[in-house]
Specification:
This protein has 12 helices and 15 strands. By secondary structure, it is α/β, with parallel strands linked by helices.
């Protein structure tokens, strides 16, 4: 029913991803090369037909759509009075950092992790403190001893969790999430959970929204959710901040409004409502396509790109590639791949931790485009090894 084999032509448009030279193939930024679900497009077109675009604010239809979505897709229904609209996960995160932590405070992350976390922390005068994930036998794990020691530091006032984790594609188990929340509760650390990839699970396992943890563990929890990654509508600039505890929610609300990141644009409300009320079938078809693409890429790399190992993952459309057998300078390898083949990947160095020995590849694209990218990867790695 849905077309995942033809990509909209975005070359020479305002697309960040496709601002490239002729012949180059971008597979870096977390932006899918699939058309947005037609149900969302129809809702936007209907709004445009209205022909009047004054100030707006979300009402019950918006918050009920969010709650119904999480109940149906993740068996976890947040209360609608826990929710606040925001103009994106990262704008909300930056406002929360400013409101709930002080200049010079530690904000804890688990590197390698999404590079924008560092911007939200460091651009606001806070200190990034990483409890690096442990990498062994091709998998990442939490070092809970190190995590507790760093959460216990009196200067650590906030932890930003990536749930599921970008770039390594790991779904945290209920046990892991509970243990993290228990430590944050014990040491009075606010836990901010970026759950923007939560819908993009592959296989039989689902992710656990942090807001669904029981009291008292959820009293210091802030979940950030959005349809932007799920439906490829990043330019919609719409997200929902879910805060179960009333006093914390009031502080978050004040921070979002002080920073003016709580007012929707003309398409944010109808686009989100359509996504969350009519997007279930499209999402399930997308998940099947992503799992097929993951297998296509993993099989090709294991068979034809020696020296590159795929880190097994069960969420996101971002493949984390271990190139430690080839180099510990991911920046140089990314530059060489682009120069040699036109393939554009993300350097793992952006995500810190052990990222210098990794690349990140976006495989959310038509299978023919993916095959092209994989062949360029094979040729580029071979050329790099010969040099």
């Amino acid at each position: 029913m849905y077309d995942f084999e033809h990509a909209p032509q975005r070359l020479h448009t305002d697309s960040v991803k496709w601002d490239v030279k002729e012949g180059e193939l971008p597979m870096w930024i977390a932006d899918m090369d699939f058309a947005t679900a037609p149900e969302i497009v129809a809702a936007m077109q209907k709004k445009l037909e209205l022909g009047a675009f004054g100030y707006e604010e979300p009402h019950a239809a918006y918050f009920n759509a969010v709650a119904d979505w999480y109940a149906a897709e993740h068996n976890a229904r947040p209360q609608t009075d826990w929710m606040i609209f925001a103009t994106g996960v990262i704008p909300a995160l930056s406002a929360i950092v400013r409101r709930l932590s002080g200049i010079g405070d530690n904000v804890l992350v688990q590197a390698p992790v999404y590079n924008m976390f560092y911007h939200s922390i460091e651009n606001n005068g806070r200190h990034t403190l990483s409890s690096d994930l442990l990498y062994a036998d091709g998998e990442y794990h939490i070092d809970f001893t190190d995590l507790e020691a760093k959460l216990a530091d009196p200067l650590t006032t906030m932890m930003i969790l990536c749930n599921p984790h970008n770039p390594v594609g790991k779904i945290w188990t209920l046990g892991e999430l509970t243990a993290i929340a228990q430590l944050c509760h014990q040491y009075h650390v606010v836990l901010v959970s970026d759950e923007i990839h939560g819908d993009l699970v592959r296989g039989d396992r689902d992710y656990v929204p942090a807001f669904s943890l029981p009291e008292p563990l959820n009293r210091g929890v802030i979940s950030l959710v959005s349809p932007s990654k799920t439906f490829n509508v990043a330019a919609l600039h719409a997200a929902t901040v879910i805060v179960p505890e009333a006093n914390l929610r009031a502080s978050v609300n004040r921070g979002l409004n002080m920073d003016e990141v709580a007012e929707p644009n003309l398409l944010a409300l109808p686009g989100t409502i359509a996504a969350y009320t009519q997007g279930h079938e499209w999402l399930h078809a997308l998940r099947a396509q992503l799992q097929q693409n993951y297998r296509q890429a993993a099989d090709f790399i294991s068979q034809k790109v020696p020296g590159v190992k795929v880190v097994a993952s069960d969420a996101t459309y971002l493949m984390w590639l271990d190139v430690s057998a080839i180099t510990d300078d991911a920046d140089a390898l990314v530059a060489a791949l682009r120069k040699e083949t036109g393939l554009i990947l993300s350097s793992g160095a952006e995500y810190r931790g052990n990222g210098n020995s990794f690349l990140r590849m976006n495989f959310a694209c038509p299978s023919a485009m993916l095959a092209d990218g994989l062949q360029r990867l094979q040729a580029g790695i071979a050329a790099y090894q010969r040099a």
